[in-house]
């Protein structure tokens, strides 16, 4: 049962344009959502998070949008830079207990010069 | 050093051997997590510590796996009688309090021959 899904395995964007990565979830108990960036042979690097009480959170070039009714979140990167090329994972957790992260399968973002 | 560290970064072993990995979390973080990531998938939760207490284990964690966090600081993950299916990246993450974002280490890549 895949509770967090990233339906696009890959995305290619031109440098300077906007990158939009999407994520869907099925578990209505999730209340905290995160995006991580991962380079090969490294651990995931935390990028940005959002609580379910908000619908938008910004940090520099990164903005995360949450649509609770659609159980959908997205990460916008503006402007996209070559160093943004990596695999991006969305993750979600429930408010109680371990608050363990449930990850999507990842989307490989390639920024073309 | 302010990040999560893991040792070793790489481990190659023969089937049937025992291996042990170490994780040093961010010093003020009381929560420590172990995840496993296989190719093409997002990380999957294995187990969770709050201080020295192991409070949750995934059904992915068979009897051959054991984890400890003896003084509430570093943690070890041991795999006994390794199998080829244990080949994966083993990731450690830490966080502070409830609702805190988890920060990952670089991972230990295990290859079982």
List the helices and strands and how they pair.
The complex is a heterodimer of chains A (113) and B (113).
Chain A: E1 4-5, E2 10-14, E3 19-25, E4 32-38, E5 45-51, E6 56-59, E7 62-67, E8 72-77, E9 86-93, E10 102-103, E11 107-112
Parallel strand pairs in A: 2-11
Antiparallel strand pairs in A: 1-3, 3-8, 4-5, 4-9, 6-7, 7-8, 9-10, 9-11
Chain B: E1 5-7, E2 10-13, E3 19-24, E4 31-37, E5 44-50, E6 53-57, E7 65-68, E8 75-79, E9 88-95, E10 103-104, E11 108-112
Parallel strand pairs in B: 2-11
Antiparallel strand pairs in B: 1-3, 3-8, 4-5, 4-9, 5-6, 7-8, 9-10, 9-11
Which percent bin holds the helix content of chain A?
Answer: under 10%
The termini of chain A sit apart by: 38 Å
Oligomer: heterodimer
Biggest sheet architecture of chain B: 7 strands, mixed
Q: Which outline of chain B best applies? A: globular
Described by the principal axes of the CA atoms, the overall outline of chain A is: globular
Based on helices, strands and strand pairing, what is the structural class of chain B?
mainly beta
* Rg of Cα set of chain B: 13 Å
SSE topology string of chain A: EEEEEEEEEEE
> Percentage of helical residues of chain B?
under 10%
Radius of gyration of chain A: 13 Å
Tell me the fraction of residues in β-strands of chain B, as a range. Answer: over 45%
The pair of chains with the biggest contact is: A-B, 25 and 27 residues
Q: Terminal Cα separation of chain B, in Å?
A: 34 Å
Q: Tell me the β content of chain A.
A: over 45%
The biggest sheet of chain A, with number of strands, parallel, antiparallel or mixed sense and barrel status, is:
6 strands, mixed
Poorly predicted runs of chain A are: none
Decide which structural class fits the backbone of chain A: mainly beta
The counted number of beta strands of chain B is: 11
Note poorly predicted spans of chain B.
Answer: none
């Amino acid at each position: 049962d895949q509770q967090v899904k990233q339906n696009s395995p890959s995305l290619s964007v031109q440098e300077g344009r906007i990158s939009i990565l999407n994520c869907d979830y099925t578990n209505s108990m999730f209340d905290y959502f995160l995006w991580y960036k991962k380079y090969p042979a490294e651990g995931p690097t935390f990028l940005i998070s959002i609580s379910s009480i908000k619908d938008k959170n910004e940090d520099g070039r990164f903005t995360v949008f949450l649509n609770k009714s659609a159980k959908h979140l997205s990460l916008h990167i503006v402007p996209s830079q070559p160093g943004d090329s990596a695999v991006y994972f969305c993750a979600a957790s429930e408010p109680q207990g371990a608050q363990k992260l449930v990850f999507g399968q990842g989307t490989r973002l390639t920024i073309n010069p | 050093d302010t990040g999560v560290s893991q040792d070793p970064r790489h481990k190659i072993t023969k089937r049937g051997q025992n291996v042990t990995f170490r994780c040093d979390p961010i010093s003020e973080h009381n929560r420590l997590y172990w995840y496993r990531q296989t190719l093409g998938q997002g990380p999957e939760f294995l187990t969770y510590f709050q201080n020295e207490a192991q409070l949750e284990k995934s059904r992915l964690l068979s009897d051959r796996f054991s984890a400890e966090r003896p003084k509430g600081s570093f943690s070890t993950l041991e795999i006994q009688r390794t199998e080829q299916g244990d080949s994966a990246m083993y990731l450690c993450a830490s966080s502070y309090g409830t609702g805190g974002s988890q920060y990952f280490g670089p991972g230990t890549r295990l290859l079982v021959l």
